[in-house]
Write a structure and sequence with these properties.
Elements lengths: L2 H6 L13 H36 L3 H9 L1 H15 L5 H19 L5 H29 L4 H30 L3 H21 L2 H4 L3 H5 L12 H30 L5 H15 L2 H10 L2 H19 L6 H29 L6 H16 L2 H12 L1 H20 L10
Helix pairs in contact: 2-3, 2-6, 2-7, 2-8, 2-11, 3-11, 3-17, 4-6, 4-16, 5-6, 5-8, 6-7, 6-16, 7-8, 7-12, 7-13, 7-15, 11-12, 11-15, 11-16, 11-17, 11-18, 12-15, 13-15, 14-15, 14-18, 15-16, 17-18
Length: 412
């Protein structure tokens, strides 16, 4: 396949002297996506294990909630920083360092004693995740130029796989070894296997592809981060981070503590969020095809309704699985992917790394406090009260703000 053929399908071609086949590029992309599966799995471990950690160490409910989502503080701190790192160092090197950090931190959490040591490890885990996520979003947007949202959707598709594997295997390993540390160690060590595979197989002509984005630099988008669309999207991302990670950080605990689900059963139900995320490529297609105002406003309204329904005590297990799946479709496949893509599209194509970095920083900066806030609200007024405030009310605000976006000022 020559450069003309590659460009025709919206994929940036590598330089002629370094060009490999398209199948080789897709193979390397799939290997990198596997590392994203691992990262997503690591995210889901601690919320399932949190009740056992709390029982062993005697942490309060709000502090336990903080531990379930504190990795997002590292993600928030690392996102925009990684955007600047990528302007100086290769994506491949940044990814490898990121995987080493979050995998090492995951394993170290199992041997750390006390709240502050555990908090530090889980926050450091997020820094490594930010390095991988920002690099992957920038690579996807640069390589698949015509379909940025769908390409980012393919990355989030792997988040869905990892989320289901992580939450399910966490429960299985917990039951098998009767020790909450076992899942953390197993997943942590597997990260170093992935580092060796990526170092040996992924080539620079693919991971550093930039040609097409440079050619399209003048096709629209702002020249810097301080513009109307980016500011609005930053606020919307903070709202979604608080809402989504309030749910992810608290729902498994709600199921176990209030409805007396087993860890395996609770992990299974929460895993349906990840199954919903498997529709991310289709969600990205919606983001490419329709106005950001319609996509984002509609998604926020849907989440506002789901936020009210989640913490009712009457739904059957099957109903909870369906609701969680629906939230995965709307909250992850459509809203998460859409926000990530629109952040990139709000800037010139040459600034893709900064756009993806701003998305990661804003969404996970809000998410860092999602688990703490929902547990604190639940302690004050019950789980239903917490869901209405942190999910329903916040998302209504988001739906209104999304209507103020200016799609005409985004790049193609």
């Amino acid at each position: 396949m020559d450069n003309t053929q590659v460009s025709a399908i919206g994929v940036s071609a590598p330089p002629r002297e370094q060009a490999g086949t398209r199948s080789a590029a897709i193979t390397m992309y799939c290997i990198l996506l596997l590392s994203y599966v691992l990262m997503a799995a690591d995210r889901y471990l601690f919320p399932v294990l949190a009740p056992y950690v709390r029982r062993e160490f005697g942490f309060s409910a709000p502090l336990t909630g903080l531990l379930t989502t504190i990795f997002t503080l590292g993600l928030g701190a690392g996102g925009l920083t990684t955007g600047y790192i990528l302007s100086r160092y290769s994506r491949k090197a940044t990814m490898l360092v990121g995987i080493a950090i979050f995998s090492g931190a995951t394993a170290l959490t199992a041997v750390t004693h006390g709240f502050w040591g555990m908090l530090f490890c889980l926050a450091a885990q997020g820094i490594g995740m930010a390095m991988l996520a920002t690099s992957m979003f920038a690579l996807a947007a640069s390589y698949f130029v015509t379909y940025k949202a769908a390409a980012i959707g393919s990355v989030n598709f792997c988040y869905g796989i990892g989320g289901f594997v992580g939450s399910s295997l966490a429960g299985v390993l917990l039951v098998k070894y009767a020790n909450w540390r076992a899942p953390m160690i197993v997943f942590g060590l597997f990260g170093f296997v992935m580092i060796a595979v990526i170092a040996a197989t992924v080539r620079g002509w693919f991971s550093e592809t930039r040609g097409a984005t440079q050619a399209r630099a003048a096709s629209g988008g702002a020249a810097g981060l301080l513009n109307r669309n980016t500011v609005l999207l930053t606020i919307l991302s903070v709202i979604h981070g608080l809402s989504m990670y309030g749910f992810l950080g608290g729902y498994a605990s709600f199921l176990q503590e209030t409805l007396h689900y087993t860890p395996t059963r609770a992990g299974f139900v929460v895993g349906f969020f990840a199954i919903g995320a498997l529709t991310s490529i289709a969600g990205g297609w919606l983001g490419d095809r329709f106005s950001p105002r319609i996509v984002l406003s509609g998604a926020y309204v849907c989440i506002a309704v789901l936020g009210y329904l989640f913490f009712q005590v009457t739904p059957s297990p099957l109903t909870r699985e369906i609701l969680t799946f629906a939230y995965g479709v709307v909250g992850s496949a459509i809203l998460y992917v859409g926000l990530a893509a629109y952040h990139v599209r709000s800037l010139r194509s040459s600034l893709a790394s900064k756009g993806s970095g701003m998305f990661v920083t804003s969404l996970y900066g809000g998410a860092a406090f999602g688990g703490y806030l929902i547990r604190a609200l639940a302690a004050h007024g019950g789980w239903l009260f917490a869901g209405v405030i942190q999910m329903s009310l916040l998302c209504v605000v988001g739906a209104v703000l999304a209507l103020a976006l200016r799609p005409s000022e985004m790049n193609a």
